Automatic annotation (TrEMBL):
GO MF: metal ion binding; voltage-gated calcium channel activity
Coiled coil: 89-124
Transmembrane regions: none
Gene: CACNA2D3
Chain ranges of the VWFA domain: 257-439
Annotated protein name in UniProt: Calcium voltage-gated channel auxiliary subunit alpha2delta 3
Lineage: Eukaryota, Metazoa, Chordata, Craniata, Vertebrata
Primary localization: membrane
An example Gene Ontology CC term for this record: voltage-gated calcium channel complex
Annotated signal sequence range: 1-26
Membrane protein topology class: Single-pass type I membrane protein
Source organism per UniProt: Lates calcarifer
Cellular localisation: Membrane
Sequence similarity: Belongs to the calcium channel subunit alpha-2/delta family.
Amino acid sequence: MQVDRSCVVSSAWCACLFLLFSTLSARVTEVGGTHQSIPPSVVKLWASAFGGEMKSISAKYSGSQLLQKKYKEFERAVRVEEIDGLRLVKRLAEDMEEMFHKKAQAMKRLVEAAEEAHLQHEEDPNLQYEYFNAVLINEVDEEGKRVELGGEFILQPNDHFNNLSVNLSLSVVQVPTNMYNKDSAIVNGVYWSEALNKVFVDNFERDPSLIWQYFGSAKGFFRQYPGIKWKPDEHGVIAFDCRNRKWYIQAATSPKDVVILVDVSGSMKGLRLTIARQTVSSILDTLGDDDFFNIIAYNEELHYVEPCLNGTLVQADVTNKDHFREHLDKLFAQGIGMLDIALTEAFNLLSDFNETGRGSECSQAIMLVTDGAVDTYDAIFAKYNWPERKVRIFPYLIGRESAFADNLKWMACANKGYFTQISTLADVQENVMEYLHVLSRPKVIDREHDTVWTEAYIDSTVSQKHHLSRDGQGPVLMTTVAMPVFSTKNETRNRGILLGVVGTDVPVSELLKTIPKYKLGIHGYAFAITNNGYILTHPDLRPLYGDGKKRRKPNYSSVDLSEVEWEDKDDTLRNAMVNRKTGTFSMEVKKSVDKGVRSPTFRNAQTHINKHFFADGVALSRGHGKFFFRGNVTVEEGLHDLEHPDVALADEWTYCNTDEHPEHRYLSQIEAIKLYLSGHEPHLQCDKELIQEVLFDAVVTAPLEAYWTSLVLNKSENSDKGVEIAYLGTRTGLSRINLFVVPDELTNQDFLTAEDKEGVFNADHFPLWYKRAAEQVPGTFVYSLPFNTGSENKSVVLASTAIQLLDERKSPIAAAVGIQMKLEFFQKKFWTASRQCAALDGKCSISCDDENINCYLIDNNGFVLVAEDYTLTGKFFGEAEGAVMSKLLQMGSFKRVTLYDYQALCWVYSESSDSGHTLLDPYFAFFSAVKWILTELVIFLVEFNLYSWWYSDLTAKAQRIGRTMQVPCDTEYPAFVSERTIKENTGNIDCDGCIKSFVIQQIPSSNLFMVVVDNKCDCSMFEPITMDPVEIMYILPAHNESLKCERLKMQKDRRRPDTCHPFHPEENSMECGGAAGLTPSLVATLLCVLLALFPR
């Protein structure tokens, strides 16, 4: 596959593509030069003086000329090669596949051990067994004695697990709060699964890169290795249930199409409807991205919960499920329930949707949520479902009454389903889970241990809170590899008993380690997507938002590739990857490099598919990004210069794999390279090519250390300490840093440290200063002001320049060097230059000190570095001088580029009912259930009237409250780029008869412009030009509902999972559930009364 979208451009980068020129106000008019009051020659003089001095300072202290000379000396010793994108992406796919295979093999060993242990175990209902409960370990009672299941459990901090205290010899067992720790089924399961401890330890010894390994039991308990203590939330609750996690559901069942029927007849009033809503919500929790669903409410009529989706199913992604949940609160009970109409609609819906080929094309099910059925409706089943019985029926009987239980159970048994009764809100979770065991039967009987990989996610549950980044900065993206565990006992074969699911977590950062970043170039990157087109890893994926403690975005785990590669308008790239095609795709791309506001760049996208769940791709930029060079020095030379104290290597790049063996884990990358080159450690795996190149860079850049040292020793230099740091970085991730002041005197002490995420080499990007330097004309410096520092004491300016290997236009970038200087020092140089003039008598006709003019120094993206009003530092020029910025856009000195953000969050005002939140609160749920029981004890026949009075303070009269909330949205925002060919310009603006003049002059050898503006005129009638994002309204507000409907219906290409297990002929369909009676004791009832009344 090869697609090429070419366009005519005037330079090697993308700033001139797809530009939207701003329209001019009627007030901006051309005015003759006779009104020009600012001499352009004087401004040019100022610009030349400032530019000359700043280049002299930047070049001197950075050592750029020396470094360029050193690379020139090695010019004949290097070989320039064009990067083969397809070969590169194939290597990436192979490396990822090897890593995936290792994780899958570890899970296979766990599966084999678990199935063998269960095979040898005989169930004992009276078994007593003390195990290490994750919550109770090391706990003592008031007398200082160990609590039951809380034995002594040795825990020690381990750096591989982010310095959390763990036990590498044993696992722990977590049991959900709503389950009994010593239940016979749990104790038996815990007992036989102890056999996994040896395999956990063995797996970790074989593959030390493994982190958490676990077994989620179908009985509800969760065995986790290494052992770690769990802590309940502030309410003393651990709500985590492994069975409703995506990795469990995805491994246990096949994809499915589901229609949920909800009874909203009059008999469902009160708590029954509340339980029904929660039941539906819990069913939605069990659906994943490979499933499709719809919800239909029924009484004497049918009511699609989302009316616009009448007659179709939608993908069960996070956005769609949340949309339906919002509509559940709108259900109300009235009328008579006509189940025959609802069943007929459901069967027709599943049949018609299956014929479209857009669904799962695997399992099908109808979930029936009702308080009773007056008939078995066998005629409907005979017409639509027999004899094949392709659609399973899962009835959920709501309430305590069992009068209709037989009819509903018959439906389940006659249609290969399962019947459960849900009497209270506390029963919902456990009973909903039963259907998963039924759907897993065919896979169990087939003995198909399908390996599944989840999409990227951030798990914030108690058990998964340990998923922290290596630097402790917060949660990170994970993917999980999981595999089902089956009962292999012959006597239970036709029952298809699922024992549980084993899994291990793989941080996305582990995937990034397989990416050869030095081969991708400065603007290149790698990415991977799932079979549904959702991003697994991509540098533009932003799953978190907020300052300080980050929060997950609502739809962070289902961000489609088209939402970040938005130039792929027709989804050509996305669909090719989803459909496992291999090839090259070229497109013009506008990609910001600095928090959404900096310069765009070109890139090509090339994709290759691996053999697992994910599709991999790499993106390469044009020009210098297409080339790579190889240098050659001796190992002795390279090691000597690599060991200099000012040398550091990219912390997140993999020169040597130090995670493979425990004895290597404490080695730095430089120590690992030395050990590897010594030849004494054959088990240490390293990237030979990268090491050779980093040794070359170490030798070439070594002279800068002595050069910088000589500047430090010369006390007459830098007497005002304006220049604080000199730094360099090379294409191999090598960096050198020199301080011209003592560390405590640094204005910005975070620069080039781990806290400065954008300023250092990361797994998925080069430093920001490096990228910006590479975009500039060779030999020029790019000056930038870090964002959000303009009015702070830590204000600094960075000056960087790129070092090219050759004189040719497409020469690869070898390195970048630069300095950090105080903003105050930089601004002082500007004001000094702006006071110069060519008059012989020294009397200048104009100066930036004059009250009638304003002087600005802006960069090539329009951001203010120097202004008389210090508060404007770091802000966009158009906010201060809207009229002038409009004129610059009109004259072509600057161009406007429209960028898009399809992962944005917008603030909206929302009216919502308390009842929705009450439903999800466990305390309200408990007290609601207690009140309902008490009501039924007092009077059975009028339970709904009394219930309505009793329950009113919780849900029936829930007040409508208003609040602002952030919701996913699409936005567009402008970026501005200077036109390189226009070095200077003048203009006049008519402000209601007053002529405002200005001059703009480029600062030589830089990305800066001096703008001098006549301020005598009031031009406030011109609106400021801002860079604020604007929400994209795709259609007029009056049609928003139809727009939402169309977007819900829209389904992008997706690839179904490779396996499907809907039925098995040996399946025992008579294992179809039963009614669970509720017969509370008198003591329990009185206790409930006391608990209910106490808070009041």
